[in-house]
Amino acid sequence: MGLEQNEVSLEQIAILHNRFKQLSQNEETLRRDDLKTIQDLESNPIRYQIIEAFFDRRNFQKDGVGSVEEIGFEEFLTVMSYFRAPAHHITEEQREEIRRAKLRFLFNMHDTDNDGTITLEEYRHVVEELLSRSGALGRETAKGIADAAMLEVASISVGPMAPDEFYEGITFEHFLKILKGIEIETRMHIRFLNMDTAVFCKQHSV
Amino acid sequence: MVLNFNERSPFTFLMCVICIASLGYGANVMAFEPTSTSPSKLPPWSQVEDTDPDPDPGETTQAVFTLNYPRIQIPFEITLWVLLASFAKIGFHVYHKITVWVPESCLLISIGLIVGGIMHSLHEKPPAVLTSNAFFLYMLPPIVLDSGYFMPTRPFFENFGTVLWFAVVGTLWNSIGIGISLFAICQIEVFGVQDITLQENFLFASIISAVEPVAVLTVFEDISVHEQLYIVVFGECLFNDAVTVVLYNLFNHVAALEVVEAGDVFLDIGRFFVVGLGGTIFGALFGFVTAFTTRFTGKVREIEPLIIFLYSYLAYLIAELFAISSIMAIVICALTMKYYVEENVSQRSCTTIRHVIKMVGSVSETLIFFFLGVVTITTEHEWNWGYILFALLFALLWRGLGILVLTQIINPFRTIPFNFKDQFGLAYGGLRGAVSFALAFTLPDNIGRKDLFITGTIVVIIFTVFIQGITIRPLLKLMNVRKTNRNQETINDEIHKRLMEHTVAGIEDLCGQWSHYYWKDKFMKFNNRILRKILIRDNHPESSIVALYKKLELQNAMEVLDQMSGDISAAPSLISLHEERKNASKSRKKFLSSDVTNMHELLSKNMYKIRHRTVSYTNKHTLPDDITAREILMRRHTSLRRSLRAGSFHGTNAAKMSQKYFSLPMGRSLNSRFPPRRLVHAGDGDIESEINYSSIRHPQRVSSKAVMPLRPLNTLKEVASSVNTVDGQNEEQRGCRRSHLGSNVSRSGHLTSHLPHGSSRNCSDGDHDAWVEEPQNNSDVQHPLMRRPHWLPQKPHDK
Question: Model ipTM?
């Protein structure tokens, strides 16, 4: 992936390295369990997807498939770099590239079975997770919402369908199309600090 | 363009009214003046009354027809002025084209000028109502409350830093810059204004740096400028008022001093911060108290709006008491309480609150502009070419410079930096208005050159309002300022926005780096866990996804129902419709009136609940565009038969959207639980029943043609049945495909056949299940998105 466009500065890399060490308890590689113990992440509805994203080969290798059990710092950094803000003076093409990359990251989060399309089940899963924080909502509602969303995608990408057609799943192209309206740059962007905040992170229970 | 007769008559009527009113007013003023100057002396009118009977011995001492003007004088005059201003407003909108090109403030000033001209020719003086007290205590709070209440909160908080930056630092920059340059000008002898001290210059500068967003926001909204720019202009103007007032008071105080020491200056700066922060904290406090109070007003809905107003006003007054920024107090109060209050109060109260705030705010603003026009003609002006023209020049110059410099500084901190077009919009959109005028007019008399200042302010205001106000629209259009992407919000958008927020928050937690998402997340958690429990009556945490979903569903429903050329009756009248159809149906369950009211309440409550999400922009002069008008769908009368004609349905968006839902299998809605409210036990939580009632059952139409996407509401199950039967009959006649509305009623999820009398069968099935918890969708339910559906559309038998 185009790491050049999403560069982080040396200082920030050092800080992230510290954090990596802290998470992996000074080992060379990071495992899922290490990430699962982060306390702040507990209350995040999509924590599993996020954690999975770090171990998903598609995110750090071009044409990678499957997932790995443990990652090194390089992969950690690669995934982080998806959230770097684009530099101010980049061309339209580069901006489009970055946008694609970020959307690809999101797509991979949805598409857990790596088949290149987001099926209804997968989408439902995500929506349910998202809404699981909302309290008194039933699963049926979440399902309903996911269904409605799928149908939206279908109607936007494929147009009106014949009655006996059905919609296979969201491909990446459709995904791009439907999210055309959102400004990815601002939403998927972390301001990496130049200050070592590792000390402020809650010590996770081992 | 040629005026046709219809357009002409209101206009001439308007002019006549204005002339008469001002003449009448002029006559009244004669009675007014003696009263104001010598209250002890009886005004001429009543004097006449007293002395009149004497010369005429034939009459009784008690006059039959008396005229006691002085008694009603003050309220009468106020009413007359307000009425006049309102007529002016009505008059403008007669010509729609005018309001598009010329901002309303221009028109108001023009009318004011005309009235002023009339009064001047009659040698009358305008009423001395615009005193300092009247302005600060009565006229300003509504204006500010209006702005504060309708500020879109989410973009505001996202751009909070920028807004404050421009408001505070920008105003300071402007005031100080203009003040110093004017002082420099004053030193030049040729202009003859050497007597104006530095403090007075600063005072004047602070007055003319108060920016007024009204006209600009209207233009911005019309051309759909992007949200960032909109919110920055809006927010800047709002807080700029606060800063200006503080500076004004500061400089006022300072101007009175003969000698200014350095210590004083530091004290003043410190005071500035105290005032600002104090106002904010005060406002937040009052906001929470208001929210808390509304938690208990469940039984006394009538006073809910009153509480809101009282608390806001109280915040303002008490802030004035402590001489901290009352504008900040009332704005922050409105911002904090809005979120909680709108969940607590009833839908009617919510509408009332918005209406009243908008109304009073716009009346206040209108009056001030009106006075501006009147005063322009009728006061004694002190004209000094050099000073005034330079003031104008510097006002424009410093604003432009200020925006440029400040943007450069803050752009690196922004995620979406402002480009030059945005900056131009910001700078050029700095119109002066009501607040400037009022501040100038209420200058204390010990300022030597008060008249000059007033004249200067008026010139600046009129210039900016007329010239900039009229030209900003074509200019922005020409420059092609970044537009907003205000497409129809899709569910996918909302889902993914949320997804991204959580992802980013998660990654931030993961790598231990916190930026504003972290704080936002933390605040939302705090909000949900603590604040909402305390401040909101029925606390259902609701995701924005669900809210959007409900909104879209309801919109669909309303579109569909609107499409029907007939009206939709309230449920009771449906019962009568049932009776007409008795031949096709078996006995149906009648609606209990309590059920009906429950349904009405639930449905409206749902619509209410999601209403606040539909408004992102607000027009300064009109209320946010509600779809509340469509809430009357429940109350209108219908003849469903008429509306079911295939031809009456036009293939529009509703059709398109409803088509999407066509491929859902029968017996399955997007929201498939049903228990009516009264059967819901406490454990279930109200939200489920609400969802159920708002969900729209989709007809199991198979056709890709948009023939009859009837999607009656859940609540009107009986509608479904009746519609179905009527539908069936029509279809038999017309050979269209059937809609399986009846299947909505059948809850077991099984496929219903398409037999002509299947409807009645379905309904009877439905009857049994009518008030029972719906069994969950079974595995035999087809889902097109999962597998190919194997049921086929039934061919109508007369095809």
Answer: 0.86
